[in-house]
Structure formats: structure tokens, C-alpha cells
Write a structure and sequence with these properties.
heterodimer, B: mainly beta, 5-stranded antiparallel sheet, about 55% strand, globular
């Protein structure tokens, strides 16, 4: 069966510090991968998605970036965090060509102070 | 106008009640509809997914889609305290198109 991992689970970082969040998927190959941010009362905001290694599409071009160095690894980064980057970051995958259901990881709660 | 509207609640019901959760949407191109359950501080968990109009049942859960009214519902029968969570509706045109989520309805089932 497929599983999706995210780490760290929680993170407290000062404004201006860098960020690296990691997502890995097991039990599948060539998944579509997604990064979302969930803020209270605002639903899920799609940040990036990737259909393959090195292929990244940005939905929200802010101070965040994403990379996909391996087939089942997706990384979310920032060089300098802003207060507004606080939130719950979720990674998701879609497995098969005809599938549309997205499956989410456990999330990373980021607090920028 | 948001593409997907969902009442944020909170919705409080006694144990054993029938719960109705709803979303409306504006994009008539949406064909695939999903419901997620999210416990506090956890990632959303896919509960049910349906294609086009009609009903789909899974245990105590029934998903209903009315494309003519652009309205989807999730019914929970014999609600349990363990059903207390936020429920998110989601929908997409299909394939790998962007999935649009509602903001979620918080449900509390009181023992």
C-alpha cells in the first residue's frame, strides 16, 4: 500500500530564516505531487505541483520554491521566511493516470515568529 | 464569488443523529467530487469520491451530487463522537486538473 510521509511534524522558525520541508511517497512510482498550505478559515491553497522529476509548476509565486530531486521526493523551501508563511503545510499525491483522488500526508505545522 | 462555498459551521449534533453537510459550486465543468475528513492537526483523509450526478453509499456515509443545482451533500447516519472533525468537499474537472476545495465544515457529535 502507498504511504506518504512529511517532516518535520512541527517547526518554529524566526522571520528571515530559511525553510526546508520534505515529503516522500512510498509504494508507488511516478506520482503527481502537490504542496498545499492550509490557513485557519481559508481552506487549502495549492502552492506547487509536480508531474515528474525536475518538473515544478507554481500556483502562488511568493518567497517559496519547490523541488523534486527524486521520483518520490518533494521539497518545499524558502530562503527567508515571512510571518505570513505560518500555516499547516500539506503534501499530497495522485497515483494513477486516470485517478483524480488526492491523498494527503500528515502535514507540517509551521509557526514563523 | 468563490468557486466552492461551504458553511464553516460549527455544527453540533447529538450522538445518533443524521448529519447533512453541503457544498455549492459555480463551475459547471466540475465532474468529480470528493469528501475529506480532517481531524484536528492532521492531514485530510479521503472519505468518498463520486463521478457526475447520483448517490454513492459507503457504510454510514452517503455522498450525493446534483449537477443541475451545482450542489453536493454528504450524509452521515447514526453519527458517532468519532465523527467529530472538519469535513472538506473537493471537486475537479478531471484528470490532473486542479482540485478545488471548500473551506470545511466543523462537526461536533455530542455523546
Amino acid at each position: 500500500s502507498q504511504t506518504i510521509h512529511q517532516w518535520p511534524a512541527t517547526l518554529v522558525q524566526p522571520v528571515g530564516s530559511p525553510l526546508s520541508l520534505e515529503c516522500t511517497v512510498e509504494g508507488t512510482s511516478n506520482p503527481n505531487l502537490y504542496w498545499y498550505r492550509q490557513a485557519a478559515g481559508r481552506g487549502l491553497q495549492l502552492l506547487f505541483y509536480s508531474v515528474g522529476i525536475g518538473q515544478i509548476s507554481s500556483e502562488v509565486p511568493q518567497n517559496l520554491s519547490a523541488s523534486r530531486p527524486q521520483d518520490r521526493q518533494f521539497i518545499l523551501s524558502s530562503k527567508k521566511l515571512l510571518l505570513s508563511d505560518s500555516g499547516f503545510y500539506l503534501c499530497a499525491w495522485v497515483g494513477t493516470v486516470s485517478s483524480y483522488e488526492q491523498y494527503f500526508g500528515p502535514g507540517t505545522r509551521l509557526t514563523v515568529t | 464569488q468563490k468557486e466552492v462555498e461551504q458553511d464553516p459551521g460549527p455544527l453540533s449534533v447529538p450522538e445518533g443523529a443524521i448529519v447533512s453537510l453541503n457544498c455549492t459550486y459555480s463551475n459547471s465543468a466540475f465532474q468529480y467530487f470528493m469528501w475529506y475528513r480532517q481531524y484536528s492537526r492532521k492531514g485530510p483523509e479521503l472519505l468518498m469520491y463520486t463521478y457526475s450526478s447520483g448517490n454513492k453509499e459507503d457504510g454510514r456515509f452517503t455522498a450525493q451530487v446534483d449537477k443541475s443545482s451545482k450542489y453536493i451533500s454528504l450524509f452521515i447516519r447514526d453519527s458517532q463522537p468519532s465523527d467529530s472533525a472538519t469535513y472538506l468537499c473537493a471537486m475537479t474537472i478531471g484528470g490532473y486538473q486542479k482540485v478545488t476545495f471548500g473551506t470545511g465544515t466543523k462537526l461536533q457529535v455530542i455523546p
